Task: inverse folding
């Protein structure tokens, strides 16, 4: 994962947004205007740095010669998820991260609670979730249970489904036939808080 923050990240996100909106690469001036910059110089400097990092390609002498590489994705941090009792769903993007490869089905969530500490998922850690992966019994998942998000270990036994905590202070959750239950995605990684 490449660390891009602050204005550089805003420039990169603006290039992507403008390219998706119009179907072609934006000019330096269009990016500056999109970001509310009065001068194109700051945008140019950030683009040079992004080019040096390998995140964009620039063709000199061409007005629309800026393009983001197709082999990376901007993966959003969508908010907090309960590692304890289920938490109401929130979908505001708090931040985003640059990852190599195509990861349109991935997102980060920040852990709120302590029910998964036995799996290394501590309060304020971030988990990387993939919506496209098949889940199986034993996987850590983000689940939507009766309108509320939670993160637990998914477990199936004799046609019964359970969500298991990784902390003995918390109880397992048995999914009943009357529950509105779905798996949002599989946890494939995490970043511990410092």
Result:
């Amino acid at each position: 994962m490449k660390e891009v923050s602050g204005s550089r990240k805003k420039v990169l996100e603006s290039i992507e947004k403008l390219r998706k909106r119009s179907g072609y690469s934006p000019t330096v001036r269009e990016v500056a205007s999109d970001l509310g910059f009065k001068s194109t110089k700051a945008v140019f400097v950030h683009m040079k740095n992004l080019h040096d990092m390998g995140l964009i390609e620039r063709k000199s002498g061409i007005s629309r010669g800026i393009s983001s590489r197709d082999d990376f994705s901007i993966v959003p941090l969508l908010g907090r998820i309960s590692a304890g009792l289920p938490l109401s769903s929130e979908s505001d993007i708090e931040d985003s991260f640059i990852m190599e490869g195509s990861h349109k089905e991935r997102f980060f969530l920040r852990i709120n609670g302590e029910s998964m500490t036995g799996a290394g998922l501590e309060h304020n850690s971030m988990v990387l979730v993939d919506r496209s992966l098949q889940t199986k019994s034993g996987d850590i998942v983000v689940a939507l249970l009766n309108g509320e998000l939670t993160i637990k270990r998914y477990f199936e036994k004799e046609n019964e489904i359970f969500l298991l905590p990784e902390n003995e202070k918390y109880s397992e959750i048995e999914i009943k036939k009357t529950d509105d239950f779905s798996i949002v995605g599989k946890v494939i990684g995490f970043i511990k808080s410092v």
Remarks:
- The longest helix spans residues 6-22.
- The radius of gyration is 20 Å.
